[in-house]
Amino acid sequence: xxxxxxxxxxxxxxxxxxxxxxxxxxxxxxxxxxxxxxxxxxxxxxxxxxxxxxxxxxxxxxxxxxxxxxxxxxxxxxxxxxxxxxxxxxxxxxxxxxxxxxxxxxxxxxxxxxxxxxxxxxxxxxxxxxxxxxxxxxxxxxxxxxxxxxxxxxxxxxxxxxxxxxxxxxxxxxxxxxxxxxxxxxxxxxxxxxxxxxxxxxxxxxxxxxxxxxxxxxxxxxxxxxxxxxxxxxxxxxxxxxxxxxxxxxxxxxxxxxxxxxxxxxxxxxxxxxxxxxxxxxxxxxxxxxxxxxxxxxxxxxxxxxxxxxxxxxxxxxxxxxxxxxxxxxxxxxxxxxxxxxxxxxxxxxxxxxxxxxxxxxxxxxxxxxxxxxxxxxxxxxxxxxxxxxxxxxxxxxxxxxxxxxxxxxxxxxxxxxxxxxxxxxxxxxxxxxxxxxxxxxxxxxxxxxxxxxxxxxxxxxxxxxxxxxxxxxxxxxxxxxxxxxxxxxxxxxxxxxxxxxxxxxxxxxxxxxxxxxxxxxxxxxxxxxxxxxxxxxxxxxxxxxxxxxxxxxxxxxxxxxxxxxxxxxxxxxxxxxxxxxxxxxxxxxxxxxxxxxxxxxxxxxxxxxxxxxxxxxxxxxxxxxxxxxxxxxxxxxxxxxxxxxxxxxxxxxxxxxxxxxxxxxxxxxxxxxxxxxxxxxxxxxxxxxxxxxxxxxxxxxxxxxxxxxxxxxxxxxxxxxxxxxxxxxxxxxxxxxxxxxxxxxxxxxxxxxxxxxxxxxxxxxxxxxxxxxxxxxxxxxxxxxxxxxxxxxxxxxxxxxxxxxxxxxxxxxxxxxxxxxxxxxxxxxxxxxxxxxxxxxxxxxxxxxxxxxxxxxxxxxxxxxxxxxxxxxxxxxxxxxxxxxxxxxxxxxxxxxxxxxxxxxxxxxxxxxxxxxxxxxxxxxxxxxxxxxxxxxxxxxxxxxxxxxxxxxxxxxxxxxxxxxxxxxxxxxxxxxxxxxxxxxxxxxxxxxxxxxxxxxxxxxxxxxxxxxxxxxxxxxxxxxxxxxxxxxxxxxxxxxx
Length: 1043
Prior knowledge:
By secondary structure, the protein is of the alpha/beta class.
């Protein structure tokens, strides 16, 4: 979030009483050149650890203290320093204040966005600002007004991709009318080559990008131009959506945070008086971290700075790591173009790292294209120990070695707080976190969201239950809290009853109160919980969200001990609620629950405060979070293929190269940015640097390992290679746990003990309402032993392979999740297909008959809102229209087709049950006239209908589900399946495959492997992309930062 100071007093300081020279820190020759530079543009290339922040702040001090010949005398209001974060601006402000303590007014030091907001406010700009998450939510609530066709998705809106595209347009100063002009030009150029398409329109139905729309008349375009014509139509839709989104935001008197800079540029272009006033006021402009600027920001600077162009830009192209936020890769080239003839000063003296670290880092970054060829960083530091390249065979072995090395360093009188572990992505730390916990090594993680902490996940679950009593997952979590005395065997019995009765857990509990379970329920605190939730629900009807949250915290009796980080997490969430209330219409729970669901879906986070105990713990953070920091000892974790460098993900909506206004983008820009990120990680180390590589024997290591070893001289002199042993046996033991103190007494925290909150909350008042040990609960043995014959299905096996813990929650813990839009839709589509084939036996049915059945059978269960429901409903009609047309034209006889064929396949200790959607006689082997056997005779085709994402050929070839169907058809139904088909209803395209005897044997082995793991109670979570749509995330230990 951004905060702005919009008023400034007049400058009354007595400059003569200040001595800039006395406040000036000791500067080297190059730093002094930059600080004392006179008029004209200045570019300072500042390598890591070269005193960049010192130079820019001391230049401000120098300018305020004495500018020779300056008339009128330069004051704080005449200097402007711009940076990218509020934290950086605050630190710079503090340094200037420290150097000039008698200064009554501070110079304007702010972020680009805050400065642009300040400019716009001077021209009566009074719109509500929307940050990126708020823009997502704003448009999500207005999806029907965007007029999406190609880019409409069923499972989730494509808003992430659209907003990313619109943001890139803002970074390049591309307005909706500019993009429309570009699209019209492209369409005209295409139509000159295909004049027959002039005037043609599309009738695109909703679908996932990358697949041809159902109902779109592709035949209108020649086959060799069909894809190009589709791209033209997609761009036309983008132009329409771009204009619609801008219009909707402006009509609501709002403005996106990302548009502030482009709006400020337009203001200066159309308001000469404002432009002249800015130029006269801001006689010296300074920009920190210039490598992170984009085209729009450079254009803003170009307008602000007039002759003699007193602008100082400080940065390092080797540390440009924010391209994903819109930073241009060619910021310094744009500075050359905007301010030709500028002076350049190189700060190449490093005051941080040892010679060996700098030489190794220099070898890596030399592989990049750079602004100018550089000689490398110099330092007067010692040679230092070698850079350690640790090579592990797998991630568990890596975690074990790193944790052991941390213990060794601490044993040699090292301080935990001097050790940092850096990683490319948050998930890369998980194995090491488990190992630290196993060894009880304290650690502190930067960059957490309070929403991933146990206390907030608990409180959010209570809020959800207050709003929706039938939220099964939230109630499951709440009942785990010790205070409610609800044993797991009773909870399982209640969940099974809810599953049997097809009702919520809450409804099952109320029904069971009148049965044999009455005595068991009375021994729990369920009546107290039910009464508390009812009381809070009544209070919520008239109370604001903050008032409700305060009442909930008080009702749970939460009282925090001094230094308890949970207090900070709760405070941050309350501030989040306060901020939401300011932009809310009702300030009530119902509106908040909708907003919060969208907030999480949009990837929103609430940053946790920095841990107070960090000095006595290993510091863990992403490389991006480590930018600007330094540590005596640094471990760079998981330098491995697909991790570091991170796999490049192509955007769904690509920004056209023709519209880029900066320097051309190199083809390997992704690898170059990842290499800069690796360079930043290496140069955080002062004394010891460990590069931890993971590579299985016989596999290729990360390309950065090759970079590191590419200079034979440096490799031999400065790098020591260490082979980490593979861990086996007891080394893989589960996490060690300490017992909670008994009797509610608080155990004193000793130096060196672990810091996860599971063991921290024992003395906290009200803690028994919170913090269930999810990991221990998830590992509880099953109520029914799986040692007998396992009853499985193809879906159950696929669920286990996707995530073993999800399988356990679904099939053994019996946690009901309620209706889901995709399942409701998929079920109805299957029913409609069956209805078509039933009608087909009596003739050729028209679409109207199928349409009538579809609409009559529609159920509004599981849809998030009316827009999503209508999107699904329209998509289904479009898909069925195409399905009917294709199958009516195909001439396939309905006789001999078997629908929803049940099977029960006995594999010894595994029983597989399921249904095959459709079994067709294979073409050329029709049933003889007058015969109507239950199943087709001879060769058959097995068909499985799919809704949602169309399955590819690779999906069909690898599908265990199709293999199970083939096994059942062959062994149990005594059929000869010669073709297995996924029929994608989304685009009405079949994808066929086959299975050999060898393939089926392999499938049996895979089934037995899954069965063996289930019998061994292997139900570890498997976090990944699928978690995005998993209902069990609120009770999954893999999504809980329990540190």
